[in-house]
Automatic annotation (TrEMBL):
Belongs to the archaeal-type GPI family. GO terms for biological process: gluconeogenesis; glycolytic process. Pathway: Carbohydrate degradation; glycolysis; D-glyceraldehyde 3-phosphate and glycerone phosphate from D-glucose: step 2/4. It holds the Pfam family GPI. This is glucose-6-phosphate isomerase.
């Protein structure tokens, strides 16, 4: 019998930084987020090269039944008065869920079902978010520090961005120094 000990990937809980493991990294910049923020003029006035979020995920084989693990690091900032956020998506395989764990910073997880009903959960170090199937999800950074959250999701889930071209119905903005929610419908 041969026994082998394999070093697993390691993540530092306080920062969400991986220190080991086969990793894939992807940066999303303001220029990649066309029609994502409400204020088009403010978006055009921003530095297109500015990174909004980085995703670092464990490079695992997408075989049947497998899961992906990754950390999203969302920068603090705003476009106009709207806080930085991820693009957000439905899963291509709609029934597939996902789990997010807040690691650092503070923000909101926006969840929107297929009828367009939206709700929010606060994200903070240690928060656990069960994202059901048939639910679009987006992270929003309402704090002054990087918001980092670890995600675990089925490889089979895939991403469907096109289904959200009308955007999310709920927007999170800063008004007179406070976090405010706004209903928003694309015309
Ligand atoms: O795909 P986005 O909406 O840009 O979000 C960025 C990433 O956030 C999380 O880490 C999800 O688990 C990933 O599947 C997703 O790709
Ligand atoms: Fe997802």
């Amino acid at each position: 019998m041969t026994i082998s000990i394999t070093q697993p990937p390691q993540v530092a809980w306080a920062s969400g930084q991986f220190t080991n493991g086969p990793l894939i990294r992807k940066s999303t910049r303001l220029q990649n987020l066309t029609h994502v923020f409400m204020d088009e003029k403010a978006w055009l006035a921003c530095d297109p090269q500015q990174i909004v979020y980085d995703v670092e995920m464990v490079d695992s084989a997408p075989i049947a039944g497998a899961l992906y693990t990754g950390v999203t690091h969302l920068q603090p900032g705003k476009v106009g008065d709207e806080y930085f956020m991820t693009r957000g998506h439905f899963h291509a395989q709609r029934e597939q869920g996902e789990v997010y764990y807040g690691l650092r910073g503070s923000g909101l997880l926006l969840l929107q079902d297929e009828k367009g009903t939206a709700r929010l959960e606060p994200v903070f170090p240690g928060s656990v978010h069960i994202i059901p199937g048939f639910t679009a999800h987006r992270l929003i950074n309402t704090g002054n520090d990087i918001l980092s959250a670890l995600a675990v999701w089925p490889c089979a889930a895939g991403h469907d961005y096109a289904a959200l071209t009308q955007g999310f119905n709920l927007r999170v903005v800063e008004e007179v120094g406070r976090v405010q929610l706004k209903e928003y419908h694309h015309d």
